[in-house]
Design a protein that fits this description.
The chain is of the alpha+beta class. Helices cover about 50% and strands about 10% of the residues. Helix 6 packs across helix 8.
């Protein structure tokens, strides 16, 4: 397929640029339509000189009426390169004037509209024949059919060593669109068709039986991609700077397999335990974990978990609270319990709203510099501590080695397990922690006086559901009622403020207003969180609330023909495709969680209808499970339940 001319593609290709930070900040005298939005990310762009519009039917109708191509920019509030592109390009009046004259410009918060993001990210992968990322920059016909796209572009040719800048991109795209309209529309039809086919192709034909091979093949694949030194999966020995993500669904699968093992000393169990424990140890030692403030950053930019991309996301920490609580229960090791306490403490201190709901994320940058809030210069730490304190902290957190961040700064991290540090000093782990706690507190208090990263105050139903489950599991396993109560408070908020009189769940809540119909992931995560609360304290009200949301999910999302759940509701806005998400990524898919939820509800309530629907949900993805079972690791524990029922 030729998407655009070869000449144009070559001209617009971006050279590999070293993406250094730009901290220019401009004041703006402009206001655009985003000023009426509630998303903190959209509001950040409400005073750009670019005449942004939100994604809605009125905007799409305007594009058709004015017969202008659409420039779609998708990002999120904690996205570092989204901020960079705003500062470099969207605050630039020359660029803004050209966009305003020749395009209808739409800005989308991917966390509010994951359906729009998924479709156009898939379109980008069809165009580029490769990966995507954010900011997502897509050029579309007036009827929203994509024909060219990219991610981040610097503002002008030569900036950041790039051969082509964004100003040139938009000029050449406009010229090509104007002179070759029929070719562009043909390309757009092709991209749209391929996007639709690719997305619908993720939905598998249903099979009839559960296969033990799904479990075996998944274990084999995880073993083949496992990093035996530092933990995690899908790493590269040849390129240690390939990013590494926590991937909680993989860890849930390993935990489930170990809990089911009849012989924990078998070779198979030892392999499973090595993958699980090495990964959890690697993450909690590295800089991806915030050793001063608790909680995990989104991912590591290297194989070693050393330097993170510094944003902190609720969905990661919710799942990892459960993971580390479960691993603590499996091993009894206090180090894992301490991580759970660190996560929950971070959530309580920095993300819990006064109303009990839980905010979405903290930005990666402050003062326009990525990681500035979290990094340290050596002299800064030396001046804050006395000699004994410094020597202890430096030895344990790597300050006696060369700087590990940008050749000048330190991101504190452990060179070995805390228990090993304690043993070397003939101390118990608790004794060493008692020595370190006031030192960390001193540095934490200094850090708190810095200019803080942006807080995204959206309250998302799905992400709250994951954190409710994490807090409930932490409360149950650690016997800490405070965590259980935090989970209950968040659940009460969502049920009272994000569900309308007809029982309809909303996706997002900001500044006292709930809006946007929920997706299946919102329902599935909230049902799962309510189940976690029921497991934690046995209160029937949580089970009743889970049933109500599950019934609404069945009504709005169930595919009566092919089984399983669509991502969007039956009355949702019509987009390029109505898809099902069956693959687990960093977050579980709605179908994986639905299978788990239905099985729990069915057995608690002795409702065979729920059990059968769980079975149908799993089997609707049987072709995928047969080909690539490791793509749905969060679904496989439910598969095990049915296999063990035989």
């Amino acid at each position: 397929m030729k998407i655009l001319s070869i000449t144009l593609l070559c001209f617009l290709s971006l050279s590999s640029a070293v993406m250094a930070q730009d901290d220019k900040k401009q004041e703006s005298k402009f206001t655009n339509a985003l000023v009426n939005e509630s998303s903190p990310y959209l509001l950040m762009h409400a005073h750009n000189p670019v005449n942004w519009y939100p994604w809605n039917e009125d905007t799409l109708a305007l594009a058709r009426k004015e017969d202008k191509p659409i420039f779609l920019s998708i990002g999120y509030s904690s996205c570092h390169w989204c901020h960079v592109m705003e500062r470099e390009s969207f605050l630039d009046e020359e660029i803004a004037n050209f966009l305003n004259e020749h395009y209808i410009c739409i800005k989308v918060d991917r966390e509010e509209r994951p359906d729009v993001d998924e479709i156009y990210m898939q379109a980008l992968m069809e165009i580029k024949r490769g990966g995507g990322g954010w900011p997502l920059s897509m050029f579309m016909t007036p009827d929203a059919k994509p024909f060219f796209g990219g991610t981040y572009w610097p503002a002008r040719d030569g900036d950041r060593n790039a051969s082509v800048g964004f100003l040139t991109v938009i000029q050449k795209i406009e010229e090509h669109y104007r002179k070759n309209r029929q070719l562009v529309e043909k390309d757009a039809e092709t991209v749209t068709s391929r996007t639709r086919t690719s997305m619908l192709g993720l939905v598998s034909d249903s099979g009839t039986t559960f296969q033990r091979s799904w479990i075996k093949d998944c274990v084999s694949e995880l073993e083949s991609t496992f990093d035996p030194r530092f933990g995690g999966f899908r790493f590269s020995v040849s390129d240690p700077k390939v990013p590494k993500f926590p991937e909680p669904p993989n860890l849930f699968f390993l935990i489930d397999q170990l809990k089911r093992a009849e012989d924990r000393s078998s070779d198979r169990s030892k392999k499973l335990e090595k993958m699980l424990i090495t990964t959890c140890e690697g993450m909690m030692k590295g800089g991806i974990y915030d050793h001063l403030g608790g909680g995990f950053h989104r991912y590591s930019v290297d194989r070693y978990w050393r330097i993170p991309h510094f944003e902190k996301m609720l969905y990661d920490n919710g799942q990892l609270a459960t993971v580390y609580a479960e691993v603590y229960e499996l091993t009894g090791r206090e180090e894992f319990k301490n991580v759970v306490d660190g996560i929950c403490g971070f959530i309580e201190r920095e993300l819990v709203a006064d109303n009990g709901g839980i905010y979405s994320s903290l930005d990666a940058e402050s003062e326009g510099v990525e990681g500035k809030f979290y990094r340290w210069e050596l002299d800064e730490i030396k001046s804050a501590l006395d000699e004994v304190e410094y020597e202890l902290f430096a030895a344990i957190y790597g300050l006696n080695k060369p700087p590990n961040f940008e050749d000048k700064y330190y991101a504190p991290q452990l060179s070995k397990r805390m228990q090993e540090h304690a043993s070397e000093r003939s101390l118990s782990l608790s004794e060493l922690e008692n020595k370190l706690r006031p030192i960390r507190r001193t540095l934490f208090d200094i850090r708190e006086k810095r200019i803080r990263p942006l807080l995204d105050t959206k309250i998302l139903a799905a992400w709250n559901g994951l954190m409710i489950r994490g807090l409930a599991d932490a409360g149950r396993i650690l016997d800490n009622n405070k965590y259980t109560q935090m989970a209950a408070n968040a659940a009460e908020f969502v049920l009272n403020e994000m569900v309308n009189d007809e029982g309809r769940l909303f996706r997002t809540h900001t500044d006292g207003k709930s809006k946007l119909n929920a997706y299946v992931i919102d329902h599935a995560c909230m049902v799962n969180g309510l189940i976690g609360l029921h497991m934690a304290n046995g209160d029937q009200k949580w089970l009743d609330a889970a049933v109500r949301l599950q019934k609404k999910q069945d009504e709005l999302f169930w595919d009566s023909k092919n089984k399983g759940y669509f991502y969007t509701s039956k009355d949702h806005e019509v987009l390029i495709a109505r898809t099902k998400r069956t693959r687990d990524g960093v977050m579980p898919s709605g179908n994986s969680l639905a299978a788990e939820n239905l099985l729990y509800l069915g057995r608690q309530l002795k409702n065979e209808g729920y059990v059968e629907r769980s079975k149908s949900t799993i089997l609707s993805t049987s072709a995928m499970l047969t080909r690539i079972p490791y793509a749905a690791t969060r679904m496989l524990p439910s598969v095990e339940e049915f296999l063990n029922d035989k």
